[in-house]
Input
Amino acid sequence: MIKTIESHNYETSSIPCLLYKAGFTSPIVLMPLPYGLSHPDSAPDWVAEGRLVPFSKAAEIQASTHSSAWHFIWQANRILFASQEKSLPLRSIPGGLQPIRSSIIGEFDGYLCHAHDIAPDTPAPEGYEWSGLRALFPVLDAGMVNLAGRSFQIMEWDRTHQFCGRCGTPTLLRNSERARECPNCSLVSYPRISPVVMGLVVRGHELLLARSPHFAPGMYSAVAGFIEIGESCEQALRREILEETGIHANHFRYFDTQPWPFPHSLMIAYTAEYVSGTPVPQPDEIEDVRWFSVDDLPTIPPTISVAGRLIRAVSQHLKAEPVV
Ligand SMILES: [Zn+2]
Output
């Protein structure tokens, strides 16, 4: 079910209606998109539910005593899973595997959750396989994808910050927080998070969807791009939508966020309203971009991604509203 937050400010609705009555004939959204659209397939918030306690300090990790453990075992960007069960996490480290680094990522339902890094080219033990996390989406629920992604991002950061970026000295893990510090020049490196804005542009009952060359055949999604230094989310949205599609958009409204561990993004999703322009795909970035009626959408991302939930929530919302 779609629900709206009661505190939504409907004052903005008068602006497009007045424009329409004044004879402004460009396609505009007459029914404002509410804040707080939600989708039933959103990942469970295990932290808010009190089931997951993320660990961010070495001191907490050393003080922990648990008899039960979960293990997320990585080799670069591939995770180990049992061939028969096809599920995560593992309850133990398979015999013969020697992690080259390990970290505790938190406690889930009383299980201490470990992330491990295995040396490149180490073969999977008998009965196990290495796999990209995306390939396991069909067999994992959204909460487990989030937890596994958290483990990957911590291992990826630890693996790539073993040496100081300023003077080259081997770094040390800080006790007071999850950070690596240079003992020579004191440079501190925190886990890297790269924010990405996503904008779903709406024109009446149509959505602006684009496809990148690396998408699965026939799949379209909302426009997305990294925030550049010095930009606000809204400035990045306006720039990315214009660069990738040739469309001017405004009235950005927050939808949802999602950590996206490929390799360390945070997706920040918005709806946007069409202002002007004709869809023109950005060369080398966008293969095709066009308007789709909410009644005739192409293949869109699955609901395990915020893109899939955004497109479904907005299209369901628009279908429930008559065109004025
Ligand atoms: Zn240094």
In short: Residues 219 and 299 are 5 Å apart (CA to CA).
